[in-house]
Amino acid sequence: MLSEGLKPTIDIYTALVHAHGKSGFIDRAFTTVEDMKSVSDCKPDVYTYFILINFCMKLRRFDLIGRILAEMSFLGIECTTVTYNTIIYGYGKAEMFEEMESLLTDMIESGDSLPDIDRSQAKPLRLSLKEDSA
């Protein structure tokens, strides 16, 4: 696109991040986010990072979550309640309860987002926890 003189938008880059994540190419998704940063007026936003986090959770790439959150913080992008819930839910499904509790504590202490797990997330998590206790 750039070589042809076309100026991509944040929506185009975010769609590319989504396509790479959905295809399982998380490294390409990260590269796309890095490419975004080099284009003026096309910086990744909370939605771009949410998509990246969501695919990291789906692909069980929990090792990348800290990196994403640190980058968001550095760029002044705050997590939304939905972003926090996505990570907490992913940690819960993976039985990463210490990480889950730590993030929930961070969420509460930040004061910017209140815990709010919706019904679509609560039922699978509840079933997962119920199976573990049986």
Description:
This protein is an all-alpha fold and 134 residues long. It is built from seven helices and no strands. The chain has helices at residues 10-22, 26-37, 46-58, 65-74, 81-93, 97-110, 119-133. It is globular, with a radius of gyration of 16 Å.
Task: Explain briefly what this protein structure is.
With 134 residues, the chain is an all-alpha fold. Helix content is 67%, strand content 0%. It is globular, with a radius of gyration of 16 Å.
Describe the SSE topology:
Elements: H1 10-22, H2 26-37, H3 46-58, H4 65-74, H5 81-93, H6 97-110, H7 119-133
Helix pairs in contact: 1-2, 1-3, 2-3, 3-5, 5-6, 5-7
Q: Oligomeric status of the shown chains? A: single chain
Q: What amount of the residues lies in strands?
A: under 5%
Low-confidence stretches: none
Output mean pLDDT. 83
Give the end-to-end Cα distance, rounded to a whole number of Å. 55 Å
Total E-strand runs: 0
How many strands, what sense, and barrel or not for the largest sheet?
none
- Rg, rounded, reads 16 Å
Tell me the helix content. 55-70%
- Outline, from the CA principal axes? globular
